[in-house]
Design brief:
It contains 39 helices and 41 strands. The longest helix has about 35 residues. This is Methyltransferase-like protein 24.
Length: about 1400
C-alpha cells in the first residue's frame, strides 16, 4: 500500500482525535494503518490494555512490531506514549462533559479535539483561513447538538468564524447554590449585507458541519456529507431562482427578462427557514446532505416564505414601505433633490414655461397615483379618466397606489371625501403566480372577496337586529391564534365591529377545542353569542397574545388528546381539512341544546302561564336528563325506551332522547370522560342500583375501582348489584352458583379448616382434581345454549373461552365479543396494536388521554442482548425451553422468519433478573432499537385499585359487623395466558444468546410488549365480571392488580363462598400458584398490609423496618450516599406514602435533590434532606406502620380561630374556641421560641411561622390531639395580615423547605398523624376575626377569665420541633467551624497562566 493509499485508509477508518494523538507521538503511517484496522476510535485504543506491559504485548501480537532494532523499539515507545495520552484525553473529556451537563452549557472542545477535526477537513479542502475556519465556540455548540442528535439551524449572525469571534468576553455570576460561575459571553456577529458576506458565512457553516462529520462517524445523518450540498444550497439562494430571480416583460430587449430584486431581508429569512426545515428532516431520519437538497426543491416552502412575501412587499404602497434611501427633505419640510412626477414645466409656481404633456383630470388631483402595477405592467390612464375602447394593451385597474382595484379611479368623485380609495368597498388581494395553473383570474378572486365582505357586514347587522328585538345570535369562526410561522393571519376577532357586539349586545365570546366534542382534531374554534353558556369545555375570554404576537390563551396549549389526523396537506385527492369542515355530532348537539335552553330564538321565547316570556336557566353544557328508569325484567336494555328532557319547555318542542342515542353518542370520536356534559359510560346498562361505591382517601373522593372494568358488578355494594337483571340472568347465575356449591361440599368436607390451610401455605396444589373439574364443567356446559361448542378449549389457551362467551352474552357483557366472535379474538389470537390500533371499550374503560413519551432510540431490527442476559444465557435458554413445552414459544432461524415476516421481523434485546431460586425472569425490550412499542397506542385507560380502594374494601367489610375472611392469590404467568395472532409473532422475537443463530419466537403475550398488560386486563376483567355476575347479591368483594387477586367474604357461609369463588376461577381455567396464597384476618396485597381485624391498612413491619435501617446506615456514613441507591430508597418511600399520607408532603426536598443529581454521584446529602430523613426515622420508630381505614368524622365549619402577633422583642399566640368560648393567650420571647427571632430583626419576619404555631397550640389546648383510632377531618380558619395566605397554601401541598416553617410543619404533621387527624386551613381577612386579634393585643374585654386556659411554654409538647432545632444548630456550628478552619489553612498560590500578547 503506497503512502497516499495509507493516508486515505487512516482518514477513512480512524477518528480525527486518534489521528492527531498518533501523529503527535510520532507513530509511523504504516503502524497507524495497523491501528486503524481494529482500533479506529479513541475509546477502543485507550482500552487496548491496562498497563504499559500489556500495550507492548499488543504491539508485538496485534501490530507485529518486533523489539529487535532501535527503530522498532522507538515505534513501540511512541505507541505506548500515544496510549497514555489517549487515556488522559478521554478521562478529561468525560469530566468536561459531566461538568457542562450539570451547568447546562455546551462543553468546551479541547484543543486536540478541535485541531483533529480541522486537520481532517483541511486534508480534503486545503488550509482554512481565519475567515473560513469556524470559531471554537461555534464548533462546541455544533458538537453538543451532534452528540444529542438535535441539530439546529443557527441564525447567520451566530455562525462565527475564528476571525469574527476574536473579541469574546467572560462574565461571572452566582448560581442557585452560591457558587461563582465564570462563563464566556455568547458572541454575535452581524447579518450579511452583501452576497459576498453571505458566501463567507455559508463557508463557515459548511466547514463546521464537515468537522462534525469527520469526528462523529457513527451518526447516520452525517453519512456521505460533503461540501457539495452546501455549495448547491448557496448557489440556489444567490442564483436566478431566488435573489437573482427574473420575470418576463413586454420590453423589446434581447432577453425579455427583468430582475425583480427581492428584498434582502426576505431572502435571508427564506434561507434561514430552509435550513430549519432541513434540520427538521434530519430529526425525521434523513441525512443532512439529502435534507439540504430536498428543501431547495420544495415548491411549497418557496411559495410560502419567498414568493408570497415578495409579492406582498411589492403590493404595498410607498406610504407603507420605508422611505427611499436617498430621499432628503429641506429645512422647510419640502423635498430637495429630483423633482417628482407631479411637477411640470408649464406656468405656475414651479413651472419653467408651457406644459408639453397632457393635463391631469381635475377629479384625480390630490390623489397618490401610480402608472404601473406592482408587477411592472402599465396602467391605462384613459380608462381611469373615462372610457377606453380596449385597444390600448394596458391594464384596466384603479391608478390609486395600493388599490389597483377593478373600479375606475374617477369613481372617487362620487365619494364625500376624495382622499383615498379606502372608502370604497375594496379588498386588497395579492395574487401569486406560483404552483399549478389557476383556473380563474384576479378579478374572480376580487369579486369573491368583495362578496365575502358584504356577507359578513350583513351578519353583523343581523346580530344587532336580533339583539334589539330580544332574540339570540351566535357567530363562529376559527380561533385567532396570533403569529404562526412568523406571519399573522387575518381574523374576524380582531375587527372592531365584532368586538363591539360584546358591549352593544351583551355578548359573550368563548373558544373550544372541537376534539372535546368528538372531532378527530383539536381545530380551535371561537364563538360569540348573547346566550348564557356555562360549560367546562368552553373557555370564556378573548384571545391573548404576548409581545411577539404569540397566542397565550385562553385555550390551553394541549387539548389532552393524542391525535393522528393532520389538517395540513392532502391525502390522495382530498385536502385534509375537508373532513373537519362539518361540526362533529356532539358539537351540533351542544349548539342545539344551547338554543333550546336560551331565553328566545329569533325574538320568540317560551311563554309562562301569565303569557309573558320567561328566561330559562343557564345552559350547563348538557341536557338535563332524568336517570334511567328501572327496567322491567323482560324488556331490559330496550333501545326504544325514550328518556324525556327534564324541562317541560323542551318537551313542548318535542325533544326526546333514547338510551341507544346515549350509547352511540358515547362511542363517537375523541371523547373525554372527565369533561362534564359528555355521555360516555352508560351507568344504567350495568343493571345495578345507584352509583358505585364512593371511596375516600387523603381528602379525595372517587368511584371504587376493582380492576375488572367500569361495568364490574363488584364496584357496587352487594345489595345494589343486579337489581335490574332479567329473570333469565338471575336464573343462570343461581344455577351456576349451586353447581359450584355442590362441588365444594362434595370435595371439601371442612371448608373452614381447609381455608386456614390454604392461607397458611399448607396446600401445594388445588384440592379440586382434574376429574372433579371436568365433571363440574360438563354440568356448566349443559346450562349453555350450545353445549358442544362450550366444551371446546382453544389451542394455546388455558381458559374455556367459548363457554365463558356464551355465559357472558346472557348478561350482555360489553366485552364478551372479544372472547370468540371478533376476527382477532382471544380464541384466535389478539393483535399487538402495531398494524392497527387497540380497540376502544367505552363500557369497560375510561379513555386514555395521556401517553408516556418513549425514549428516543436509533432503529435496529436486530438488537443485542444486555449484559445481564448475556451472563445468564444458559438460564434464559432453559426458561425458553420450558416456555416451548407450554406452547408459548418456539425456536427458529432468521432466514426462515424473514421469508414469512419480511421487514416486520424484530429481534429485541433481552435482559434478565436473577431470582432467589437461581432461575431468571426474562425482560423483553420492545422499546429500544426495535421500536415496536412506539407503534402501539392505547385508547383505553387501565384503571387499577390503589390505596383508596384498599382502605375502602376494609371499611366496607368492617361496617357489616361480621367477622371477615380474606385471601390473596397470584395468577401464574398472567401476561403469557393471552394468545397473539400469528401475523404479529414477527414483532416478538428474541435470542437467549446474541451470538447464537437460534431465534426464539413468542406466541403469547410478552412482558415488555406494551399491549400485553392491556389484553390481560381485558381478559381478567371478563373473568372477574363472570364471578361478579354469578355471586349476584351474595356478600363478597374482590379486586385485581395485574396478576395479584384479593377477595374478602363475610357472614355465616364465608368459608364456603371463598371456595366457591376460587373454584369458579379454576372452572374457567385460571392457573394459580398455590404456594403464594395468603390471608385470614390480615393479608398483604401488592406490597400493602391489610388488617381487617383492626380496620387498618399500611405497610408490613418488614418493609417499614427496611426504611429505618437504610436511614440509620446513611447516618453512620455521615449521610454520604450514592445517588443511585438514594433513588431506589426514594422510590420505596413514594410507594409507602400512598397509604401513609402523612409522609407524602415531606418527600418534596428529597425528590428535588434526586432529580438534579446524576445516578453515579457519591456525595453528602443537603441539610434539608438530612433533617427530613431524621424526622421520618423518628416517626417510624415511635409510630406503627398502619393507619385507620374507618370513615373520617368530618367537622364542618370553623371550630376555633387563631392569630399571632410578632414584634421586635416578643410574640403573642392567641385563639378561642367557637363552641365553648374557651380561649388562650401565650406570650413569649427569644428564650421561649428562639427559632422565631433573628438578631437585629426580631420576630416580625416570622409571621407565617407564628400563625401556624398558634394553630398547633390551639389543637393541643382544645383537645384535638387524642390518640383514638378513628380518623377525623377538621377545617380551621387562619387570620393573618393582608394577602398572607401562605398557610392555606401550605395545608394544601403540606410541604415546605423554609425554616422555621419546615420544623413547625413537621411537628404539626407528626401530631396529626398520631391523632389520625386531617387538617385544612382556610385564610380569611383579619377584619372577620377581631376577637383573636384583640387577644393578641392582650385586650381580654368580652372574654371570661373563667374560660381562659392557663398555659406556659413548658406545658407544650414540641418534641419533633425541638429535635429539628438542635440538629440544625449542630449543622450550623459544624459549618462555621469548617469555615474557620479553611481561613487558617495555608494559602496556596494560584497557578499562573501565560497571557496572550497585547
Amino acid at each position: 500500500m503506497d503512502p497516499v493509499a495509507q493516508r486515505q485508509f487512516v482518514q477513512t477508518n480512524m477518528d480525527s482525535d486518534l489521528q492527531f494523538i498518533l501523529g503527535e507521538a510520532g507513530v509511523s503511517l504504516e503502524h497507524q494503518v495497523g491501528i486503524a484496522r481494529h482500533y479506529g476510535n479513541l475509546r477502543k485504543f485507550s482500552a487496548l490494555g491496562d498497563d504499559r506491559p500489556a500495550i507492548r504485548t499488543a504491539c508485538a501480537q496485534d501490530f507485529a512490531i518486533p523489539q529487535d532494532t532501535p527503530e522498532h523499539r522507538s515505534q513501540i515507545a511512541s505507541i505506548v506514549a500515544a496510549w497514555e495520552t489517549a487515556k488522559e484525553y478521554l478521562a478529561k473529556e468525560v469530566e468536561l462533559k459531566a461538568e457542562a451537563k450539570v451547568l447546562g452549557q455546551p462543553r468546551v472542545l479541547q484543543i486536540h479535539e478541535r485541531q483533529a477535526m480541522l486537520r481532517a477537513v483541511e486534508a480534503i479542502h486545503g488550509d482554512l483561513g481565519d475567515q473560513e475556519c469556524p470559531s471554537s465556540d461555534y464548533l462546541s455548540i455544533k458538537a453538543e447538538e451532534t452528540e444529542c442528535n438535535e441539530p439546529s439551524a443557527a441564525s447567520l449572525d451566530e455562525i462565527l468564524s475564528k476571525h469574527a469571534s476574536s473579541n469574546s468576553q467572560i462574565q461571572s455570576a452566582v448560581d442557585s447554590s452560591g457558587h461563582i460561575r465564570v462563563t464566556r459571553t455568547k458572541t454575535k456577529g452581524k447579518m450579511p449585507t452583501t452576497t459576498e458576506e453571505f458566501r463567507k458565512i455559508m463557508k463557515v457553516e459548511t466547514y463546521a458541519w464537515l468537522c462534525m462529520a469527520s469526528r462523529y462517524r457513527a451518526k447516520h445523518w452525517l453519512h456521505g456529507l460533503t461540501a457539495e450540498p452546501f455549495q448547491k444550497f448557496t448557489e440556489y439562494i444567490l442564483g436566478d431562482r431566488v435573489f437573482g430571480i427574473q420575470i418576463p416583460t413586454s420590453s423589446s430587449d434581447t432577453t425579455g427578462q427583468t430582475k425583480v430584486k427581492p428584498d434582502w431581508s426576505i431572502v435571508l429569512a427564506y434561507e434561514h427557514k430552509l435550513r430549519k426545515e432541513a434540520m427538521k428532516r434530519v430529526l425525521e431520519g434523513y441525512t443532512l446532505a439529502d435534507s439540504l437538497l430536498a428543501v431547495i426543491r420544495d415548491p411549497d416552502l418557496k411559495e410560502a416564505y419567498f414568493t408570497t412575501p415578495v409579492a406582498l412587499k411589492s403590493a404595498m404602497s410607498e406610504t407603507q414601505q420605508q422611505p427611499h434611501k436617498w430621499q432628503r427633505f429641506n429645512s422647510k419640510g419640502g423635498f430637495s433633490g429630483k423633482q417628482s412626477q407631479g411637477f411640470s414645466k408649464g406656468k405656475g409656481k414651479f413651472s419653467k414655461g408651457k406644459s408639453k404633456g397632457k393635463t391631469m383630470d381635475s377629479r384625480l388631483k390630490g390623489l397618490n397615483l401610480a402608472w404601473r402595477t406592482p408587477d411592472g405592467r402599465e396602467l391605462c390612464f384613459q380608462w381611469n379618466n373615462g372610457e377606453c375602447d380596449g385597444s390600448c394593451g394596458r391594464v384596466h385597474q384603479c391608478r390609486v397606489k395600493g388599490c389597483y382595484g377593478t373600479h375606475k379611479a374617477d369613481a372617487i368623485a362620487a365619494l364625500p371625501s376624495r382622499a383615498a380609495c379606502d372608502e370604497l368597498p375594496l379588498v386588497k388581494v395579492a395574487y401569486l403566480f406560483a404552483g399549478k395553473r389557476r383556473h380563474s383570474d384576479v378579478a374572480a378572486f376580487l369579486r369573491k372577496a368583495e362578496m365575502a365582505n358584504t356577507f359578513f357586514e350583513r351578519c353583523i347587522r343581523a346580530c344587532h337586529v336580533v339583539s334589539d328585538t330580544g332574540g339570540c345570535f351566535i357567530l363562529e369562526h376559527p380561533e385567532d391564534l396570533g403569529t404562526v410561522e412568523g406571519e399573522q393571519p387575518g381574523s374576524i376577532w380582531q375587527w372592531a365591529d365584532v368586538l363591539a357586539l360584546i358591549t352593544d349586545c351583551k355578548a359573550t365570546s368563548f373558544a373550544v377545542h372541537q376534539c372535546k366534542f368528538g372531532a378527530p382534531t383539536p381545530k380551535p374554534t371561537r364563538f360569540m353569542t348573547n346566550m348564557a353558556v356555562d360549560d367546562k369545555r368552553c373557555y370564556k375570554a378573548l384571545p391573548k397574545f404576548d409581545k411577539l404576537g404569540l397566542y397565550k390563551g385562553p385555550l390551553p396549549k394541549q387539548c389532552g388528546h393524542v391525535h393522528t389526523h393532520k389538517l395540513i396537506g392532502r391525502t390522495a385527492a382530498q385536502w385534509n381539512t375537508s373532513p373537519s369542515a362539518a361540526y362533529p355530532p356532539k358539537l351540533c348537539q351542544f349548539l342545539a341544546d344551547l338554543i333550546l335552553n336560551a331565553s328566545a330564538s329569533c325574538g320568540r321565547g317560551v311563554k309562562d302561564k301569565s303569557g309573558s316570556r320567561k328566561r330559562q336557566q343557564t345552559f350547563t353544557g348538557h341536557t338535563s336528563l332524568q336517570p334511567l328508569p328501572k327496567r322491567a325484567k323482560d324488556t331490559a336494555g330496550s333501545a326504544e325506551q325514550a328518556i324525556d328532557v327534564e324541562s317541560s319547555d323542551d318537551q313542548s318542542l318535542g325533544v326526546h332522547r333514547t338510551a341507544a342515542d346515549r350509547t352511540e353518542q358515547g362511542q363517537m370520536g375523541c371523547d373525554d370522560p372527565d369533561v362534564e356534559g359528555e355521555t360516555q359510560f352508560d351507568l344504567g346498562a350495568c343493571r345495578n342500583t345507584g352509583r358505585p361505591i364512593v371511596v375516600e382517601w387523603d381528602r379525595y373522593h372517587r368511584d371504587f375501582i376493582d380492576g375488572f372494568g367500569l361495568c364490574s358488578p363488584a364496584r357496587w355494594r352487594p345489595s345494589h348489584r343486579g337489581t335490574h337483571r332479567s329473570d333469565g340472568m338471575v336464573k343462570l347465575a343461581n344455577q351456576t352458583f349451586e353447581l359450584l356449591v355442590e362441588t365444594v361440599k362434595a370435595t371439601i368436607p371442612d371448608v373452614r379448616k381447609e381455608a386456614f390451610r390454604l392461607v397458611t401455605g399448607k396446600l401445594e396444589h388445588s384440592p379440586f382434581s382434574e376429574e372433579t373439574l371436568e365433571r363440574l364443567r360438563n354440568k356448566w356446559f349443559s346450562l349453555l345454549p350450545d353445549q358442544q361448542e362450550a366444551s371446546i378449549r382453544d389451542v394455546g389457551q388455558p381458559f374455556f373461552l367459548r363457554a365463558m362467551a356464551q355465559w357472558l352474552k346472557v348478561f350482555e357483557d360489553p366485552d364478551a365479543k372479544w372472547l370468540v366472535d371478533e376476527e382477532d379474538s382471544f380464541a384466535t389470537g389478539v393483535c399487538l396494536g402495531v398494524e392497527k390500533p387497540l380497540p376502544r371499550s367505552v363500557q369497560v374503560c375510561h379513555q386514555k388521554l395521556k401517553h408516556r413519551r418513549l425514549d428516543d432510540t436509533e432503529f435496529a431490527a436486530i438488537a443485542q442482548n444486555y449484559p445481564s442476559a448475556q451472563m445468564s444465557s444458559k438460564e434464559l435458554e432453559d426458561k425458553f425451553r420450558e416456555e416451548e413445552s407450554l406452547g408459548r414459544m418456539f425456536p427458529s432461524k432468521v432466514g426462515v422468519l424473514q421469508q414469512e415476516y419480511g421487514s416486520d421481523l424484530r429481534i429485541a434485546a433481552m435482559a434478565a433478573i436473577q431470582k432467589p431460586d437461581g432461575s431468571v425472569r426474562p425482560l423483553h425490550d420492545a422499546t429500544h432499537s426495535v421500536m415496536v412499542n412506539h407503534s402501539i397506542k392505547y385508547q383505553d385507560k387501565i384503571d387499577c385499585p390503589g390505596p383508596a380502594e384498599i382502605a375502602s374494601i376494609v371499611r366496607e367489610t368492617s361496617e357489616t359487623k361480621d367477622a371477615p375472611f380474606c385471601v390473596s392469590a397470584d395468577i401464574r404467568a398472567a401476561h403469557r395466558l393471552v394468545k397473539v395472532r400469528r401475523k404479529d409473532w414477527g414483532y416478538m422475537c428474541c435470542k437467549a444468546d446474541s451470538g447464537s443463530d437460534t431465534v426464539w419466537v413468542n406466541k403469547t403475550g410478552t412482558f415488555g410488549i406494551s399491549s400485553a398488560p392491556y389484553w390481560w386486563f381485558k381478559l381478567a376483567g371478563l373473568l372477574g365480571r363472570f364471578i361478579g355476575y354469578m355471586f349476584h347479591q351474595r356478600w363478597f368483594m374482590h379486586m385485581i392488580y395485574v396478576d395479584d387477586l384479593h377477595g374478602v367474604f363475610t357472614g355465616e357461609r364465608k368459608f364456603l363462598h371463598l371456595w366457591v369463588w376460587l373454584l369458579a376461577y379454576e372452572m374457567a381455567g385460571t392457573p394459580f400458584g398455590y404456594h403464594k396464597f395468603k390471608g385470614g384476618f390480615a393479608s398483604e396485597f401488592v406490597g400493602f398490609q391489610i388488617r381487617y381485624d383492626k380496620t387498618e391498612v399500611g405497610i408490613s413491619f418488614k418493609r417499614g423496618d427496611w426504611i429505618v435501617q437504610w436511614i440509620s446506615k446513611a447516618e453512620q456514613n455521615k449521610f454520604v450516599v450514592q445517588a443511585r441507591e438514594f433513588t431506589e430508597f426514594l422510590g420505596r418511600l413514594g410507594f409507602i406514602s400512598q397509604l401513609l399520607i402523612w409522609l407524602k408532603p415531606h418527600l418534596a426536598p428529597l425528590f428535588s435533590w434526586s432529580a438534579v443529581t446524576a445516578a453515579g454521584t457519591v456525595c453528602r446529602l443537603p441539610d434539608t434532606v438530612i433533617l427530613t430523613l431524621l424526622y421520618i426515622s423518628k416517626e417510624f420508630t415511635r409510630e406503627t406502620f398502619l393507619v385507620s381505614a374507618r370513615r373520617p368524622v368530618c367537622f364542618q365549619g370553623d371550630q376555633f380561630r387563631t392569630d399571632a402577633k410578632c414584634t421586635d422583642t416578643y410574640i403573642v399566640l392567641a385563639g378561642w374556641e367557637l363552641s365553648s368560648k374557651r380561649w388562650f393567650a401565650l406570650k413569649g420571647g427569644p428564650a421561649d421560641a428562639p427559632y422565631l427571632f433573628k438578631p437585629g430583626m426580631g420576630a416580625q419576619w416570622a409571621s407565617t411561622s407564628a400563625e401556624l404555631l398558634a394553630t398547633l397550640v390551639a389543637l393541643q389546648l382544645f383537645g384535638w390531639f387524642d390518640t383514638s383510632g378513628g380518623r377525623k377531618a377538621l377545617e380551621v380558619s387562619l387570620f393573618g395580615g393582608t394577602d398572607n395566605r401562605a398557610n392555606e397554601s401550605l395545608s394544601e401541598k403540606r410541604s415546605t423547605t423554609k425554616w422555621p416553617l419546615m420544623g413547625i410543619n413537621m411537628q404539626l404533621s407528626s401530631m396529626l398523624s398520631r391523632s389520625r387527624l386531617s387538617l385544612g386551613l382556610r385564610w380569611r381577612p383579619r377584619d372577620e376575626n377581631k376577637e383573636a386579634d384583640q387577644l393578641t393585643n392582650e385586650d381580654f374585654t368580652g372574654f371570661s377569665m373563667d374560660h381562659r386556659i392557663a398555659v406556659s411554654w413548658a406545658d407544650l409538647r414540641f418534641d419533633v420541633l425541638e429535635d429539628m432545632v438542635r440538629t440544625r444548630e449542630a449543622f450550623d456550628q459544624a459549618r462555621q467551624q469548617a469555615k474557620a478552619e479553611a481561613k487558617q489553612a495555608p494559602k496556596v498560590k494560584p497557578k499562573k497562566f501565560d497571557k496572550s500578547p497585547w
